[in-house]
Amino acid sequence: MPYVAVIGLQVLCIVHLMRNGRNPIWLSALIFLPVVSALAYFFVEILPGLGSNRHVRTARNNVVALIDPERELRAAKDSLDLADTAANRLRAADALAALGRHEEAVPLYRESIRMTVGEPDLRTQGKLATSLYETGQGAETLALLDVIPEPMGQSEKDRQALLRAKTLEHLGRNAEALALYEDVVTRIPGEEARCRYAALLLAEGWERRAVKVLEEVESRMKRLDRQQRAADADMYRWATDTLARLRASA
After folding, report:
1. Which of 17, 32, 50 is a domain's end point?
2. Would 102 be classed as within a structural domain?
3. How far is residue 155 from each of residues 60, 143, 151, 161, 178, measured CA to CA in Å?
4. Boundaries of domain holding 30
5. Closest CA to 6 of 32, 38, 47, 49
6. Would 235 be classed as within a structural domain?
7. CA 111 remoteness from chain centre
8. pTM for the model
9. What is the pLDDT of residues 82-126, one digit of tens each?
C-alpha cells in the first residue's frame, strides 16, 4: 500500500475513533501498526456503519442500478411469484416503469389498485396515470387525473399538474397546457417544465416568450456542475441549441 494512502487511512481511522468514542485500545494499534490495524479498524468499526448512512446507501444503489439495471425487477418478480399481493404487484410495476417498460407496468398498476382494500392509494393512481401517458393513452390519462383526489403536498400537486399539462399538450389542447406550464414552472424543480413550456410557445408562434423561458434555463444551467447537468444532457443541449438559433435569427 502506498505510504500516502497508509497515512491517510490511519488519520481517517484515528479521527473516527476520537469522534465516535470507540475502544481506546485501537489508538495504540493504529499508531504502532498502521497498515494492519487501520484496515482492521475500517472493516470492524467504519464499514458496518456506512450501511445506515442515507447518502452511502443512495450512492451504492445508484452504482448497482448502473451495473445491473434489472436487479430490482428480478427481485420484485421473485417476490410476486412467492406472494401475489397488491404490494408485490406495485413493486414489480415500479421496477418496470423505472426501466421505461410502461406498457408492462400499466396492467400491474391496475391490478395493484384493484387488489387494494379500501380507497385506492393516491400515489399508485398517480403512477398509473404516468405510465398511461408514457404509452400514449392521453385520453385515459386525463380521465384518471380528473378523478384522482388532489394531493396534500405542494410538490405532489405540482407533479400532477405537470403531468396534466403534458397530457393536454399530447391531446392538442395547447392553450390549457400553456396555462398550466406557465404556473408550474415557478415552483417545480428541474427544467423539464420550462423546456416543454418553451417548446410549446415556439409551436404556437410565441418566440419572444420562448426566448425568455430558455434564457432562464440557460442561467440556471450555468449554476450546475457537469455531473448535475449530465442526467438531463439531451434537454440542456436542446435548450442551448434552440436558444442559439433564436438569437441568430433575431
Report:
1. 50
2. no
3. 26, 21, 9, 10, 19
4. 3-50
5. 38
6. yes
7. 25
8. 0.74
9. 999 999 999 999 999 999 999 999 999 999 999 988 777 889 999
